[in-house]
Amino acid sequence: MQFKTLKTTLQLRARQRARSTLDNRFVQWISQQFHLTLLSSIYIILVMSYAIPRTRTSHPPVTVAVSPRFEMFHALRLVLEPVEGIHDQWCREARSNLSRSFFDRVKRFCSNPVIWPNLADAIERSALDGSFFEVLKAQAELDLDRLQYVLLESAFHDGDTARNLMTGKLTLANSLKNVSGGQKDWLSFFGLYPYDSGSPMVLFFERVLNNPEQIRDELLRLLNEFWDRVFDDTWADLAPALERAAATLERSIPTSSLSEIATRALLRIQVDDKARTITSVLGDYSVSFDDLERVHFTPSAFNYNRLWAVYENGETGLSTVVFPFFDPEIALSENEPRSRYAAAVIVEPLLIFKALGDSTRFAMIKILAEEPTTSVDLAKRLNVTKATVSHHVQKLRMAGLITEEWNNGSVTLTVRREVIEALSHRTIDLLFDNTKLPSTEF
Questions:
Q1: CA-CA distance, 172 to 174, in Å (whole number)?
Q2: What strands, in cross-sheet order, belong to the sheet with 319-326?
Q3: Phi, psi of 59 (to 5 degrees)
Q4: Residue 286 φ/ψ, nearest 5 degrees
């Protein structure tokens, strides 16, 4: 009996141990499944966080609009100073539709066509997405003191200089004596430096200081005639293409940094997302993200120089940056394919000479002239860091001297020989013929 009881007890304990072992294994299995599920969930969340478009809010608000606000000024400049390969047929037709007296009045107004994009700045932040008539109304209602200040400030990039010129504390000659560095580059491009009392720009700004009302009234008359004879019809044909360009850029904004947006818009600026700054190529003008109210983009078929502007809000102290971004794919004539505009040779001697004035960049161009080369190979051949090469590539890119093409995971750089070949002619035009408008013979 005792033996049976002992046997039963041992069997019971064995079953309990077996059940306990089974329970432990079950608990372990459940624990493993839980951890696997948790890890899988974390993995899915990580994958989805990269797959789902992310909104970057580190840059100021970005807006996009289509308007003739800047476009008609850049278009008029192109009519007055045609660039081969950019809307050639349109330029010929536009010139044939304008009277000889129109060109004569433009020449008396200011014989340097570079002034026209500057005149778009006169109404500052007004009518950024307005119609022609809204723009004209804003121009007509502009306070004359404000007109003087805005035109002078946009030329000199310095509010104190503008105010001192208006009050007579400075003359144009004195204001141009001590400029240096980037400001000198910009004023040279703009036609104010070196000072020449007979240069078109100096004569124009003397009139801005002495008779701003005459400047405003003549500007309104010229814009009206250009719109009626040329740009009204042009705008009707052009607007749909600009709307498409605007929509394409707008779709990229929520998931892009400002530097990425600027690259897509082909802007000639330097955007540092970490330092939160925008810096111009000409003039070394810089503005901080923190000082901006918004960044405004408007597509352009005419702003081939990729000029841009900054307008301050006097009430908030914050500024609006406006980029009329040039889209070389937009054609104004079916007879002139888009590829002509995309391949147009835009030669800016000041940027090119500045880029080639550095010994490292000149050595890079010399290597690239022999054969297309990657940035990595350039760094090896010149015994410099990749960061150094990237810095210099940006300068060469801004000058329009190179093209870049992705090839097997790396970027191959190529010299634009046609730009180098066109440099001599463009430089001669600027140095020896910069006071003449194109012939008015049709």
A1: 6
A2: 62-64, 292-300, 319-326, 309-312
A3: -105, 165
A4: -135, 145
Regarding beta strands 319-326 and 277-280, do their DSSP bridges make them parallel or antiparallel, or are they unpaired? Answer: unpaired
SS3 310: strand
Q: HSE of 353 in the Cβ direction (CA atoms, 13 Å)?
A: 10
Query: pLDDT tens for residues 256-298?
Result: 999 889 888 888 888 888 899 998 876 668 999 999 999 999 9
| Distance (Å) of CA 231 to CA 97, 116, 227, 387 | 10, 15, 4, 46
Task: Output the pLDDT for position 54.
Answer: 41
Looking at residue 254, its pLDDT comes to: 92
With 90 as the cut, is the pLDDT of residue 398 above it? Answer: no
Q: How far apart are CA 379 and CA 387, in angstroms?
A: 9
Structure tokens belonging to residue 182:
């980037």
Distance CA 365, CA 370 (A): 9
Find residue 269's DSSP bridge partners: 280
**Which residues 6+ apart lie within 8 Å of 118 measured at CB?**
151, 154, 155, 190
Full-prediction pTM beyond 0.85? no
Query: Of 114, 121, 120, 118, which is closest to residue 83 (Cα–Cα)?
Result: 114
Distance of CA 206 to the CA centre of its chain: 31
How does DSSP classify residue 324?
E
Residue corresponding to tokens 């009996």? 1
Tens of pLDDT, residue by residue over 146-175, are 999 999 998 998 899 999 999 999 999 999
Question: For 23-100, where are the E strands, in sequence order?
Answer: 62-64
Coil/strand/helix, residue 168: coil
Neighbours of 211 (CB within 10 A): 13
CA dist 356 and 274 (Å) reads 28
Strands 309-312 and 292-300: unpaired
Per-residue pLDDT at 42 exceeds 70:
no
CA distance 267 to 280: 10
| Bridge partners, residue 300, by sequence | 326
pLDDT of residue 337: 53
